[in-house]
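The record is given unchanged here:
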Amino acid sequence: MHEIIDHIGKVLRLNELGNVALKINTSHTTLDEFAKSEPTWASIHAMIQQVVRNSEVEIDELRAKDAGERDKQRENILLMHKYFLLYEEISYTMNHGDIRRVEDCFTPWIWIFMGCGKLKYAVEMQRYLENIHFRFLAGLKYVLLQIGKF
């Protein structure tokens, strides 16, 4: 499942870059044609920034429309981007042992688990965050993190 999520996320992002490349230059109908034009790293970086900016604004604009005018497929694609990137971020940080960043990812995951009815996961993640940051003493928190109990 991990590989499927990773693959689908990459394909969706490449498709989005292809759409931006087509908007910039209509002669680039595929990503292969865009790659043959030998774009600079700066232009690719600018395209990625444009995709991120458009996605942030677009989801709010799409949801603000009336039910009959909404593009639900586009909304779902943007939500898939969001969730796949969140999954990739927590997976990457867990593999590299970055516990602070893992904790940062917990908050959206708590809401996701609550939304899909996985309350035990949500409660345990919340309990962990409360214990580490508000209940345990600073020295004890350091020791527990070092021995891997929390």
